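Task card 7
Instruction: Convert sequence to structure tokens.
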Amino acid sequence: MTGPAKPVVVDTVQAVRFQVAQARCLGRRIGCVPTMGALHEGHLSLIRAARQRCDYVVVTIFVNPTQFVAGEDLENYPRTRDADLAACASVGTDLVFAPSTAEMYDPDSLTTVRVHRITEPLCGRHRPGHFEGVTTVVTKLFNIVQPDAAYFGQKDAQQAVVLRKMTRDLNFPIEIVVCPTVREPDGLAMSSRNAYLSPEQRRQALSLHRALDGVRRAVAEGRRDAAGLLAEARQTIKSAGPCSIDYLEIVHPETLQPLTEVDQTALVAVAVRIDQARLIDNLLVDPSGPA
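Output:
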């Protein structure tokens, strides 16, 4: 009995373009899942979604240095190539593009892509330059792969908003598909950075989802005051253990501007540092939804 077919693995722009051109000549719809590797079930859910809606699935694995800011974990970011390739094979990936930094960035490169305003709040306030790194590398990947659709996770809610806007503004003929956050059975959002947590810190990290879900339930029960809701959520996180809250906000889900009243669908977003790990999570809350 044979296992799943192994994907073709390439590390040059020329090789990707050759493989994708062959697939396109056969009339195949191309799906792309950009990742930084260290794949987990959240990533695999994106690949499965691409597999369902596309005929040919490209996964990119590239730890992009330009989206890390000073003091972050670029050197220690988990790199698990063999496990990643096995995971890609298990969900039917056709092509893996795993380039080097030299392949992606010429040493004399002078061009970046920047989206204004919506990159400034939330993570943008605490990670200056991060989103410019994201939008630049995703633009490059879009130009290299030229997919019909690209798949991202709702866990990175601000990134999804930014990339949708960038795609519209630059007239990329690419559908941006945002898939639901995948969680552990206890509610923790899956993240490559969860590997940094000790068992005790892992239990502490559950406070993020607990706080967000508390806001959701309170809104469904009729609460509308954003300040009061956030104060209670902040207490939930602080009481769980030592941490630093980068932000905890209720914002408009597209403009990312703060809301004072939750009288419309809103995004509750949080970023918390527990020791070395910076964890993010979010929930969409709907005042007309069930409790």
